Amino acid sequence: MTPSGKRSDVKFRRILLKLSGEAFRDRATGESLSPEIFRSMAVQLKRVHALGVEMAIVVGGGNIFRGLAGAPSGMDRSTGDHMGMLATVINSLALQAALESEGVEVRTMTAIAMPAVAEPFIRRRALRHLEKGRVVVLGAGTGNPFFSTDTAAALRASEIEADVLLKATKVDGIYTDDPKKKPSARRFDRLTYSEALRRRLRIMDAAAFALCQENKIPIIVFDFFKPDEILRVVRGEKAGTVVTGG
Fold this sequence. Notes:
Layout: E1 14-19, H1 35-50, E2 54-59, H2 77-101, E3 106-110, E4 119-120, H3 123-131, E5 135-139, H4 149-159, E6 164-169, E7 174-175, E8 187-188, E9 190-192, H5 193-199, H6 206-214, E10 219-223, H7 229-234, E11 241-244
Helix pairs in contact: 1-2, 4-6
């Protein structure tokens, strides 16, 4: 059902969308937090929300800081990862602001308690927000070092019982090789978990992939910046690469 009570034609009732931090960076200007990119994202996400889709979003922080970036200067991994988690919270708040400016009701929840700026992640509370039609933005990863935001996305997708995990990228699916380096690389329309593992395709890190496989959560890798592509995905139209159990 849509927020107005009208039934809409969508394949997935509840989704977990993973947005890389790099998606927020303006490559033309080098700006880490591009207001125009956030606005464009918010417009697309509002269209999905208007279909009545329950949506949780896990954001990365690579546009600001990556945990491994401090290693060359002698910073220990735990400290670096915690800094990266805080970067995801900055992105979460920026995305929340952009969505709210489009009239979408949003709740930001974090795996690291910081009640002055966001709610703590509590599974039942997150589910309640989704049921009430609010978009839930999830920051601070899993709250633990040594785990990527891909793993956080797979974990939260499992916890909220999402119908699908959507991994938003800047390419239109999964390829046999990097299509930017090898134009002859072939794109897959569909893959099984076992095929992806056998081919060693870098969809998500191993822990994230294992969670999705164990909990039978399909993964769809798609180009978020292709106009209306996310709408095609949630409607079940042919878009991106689908990874399932068979």
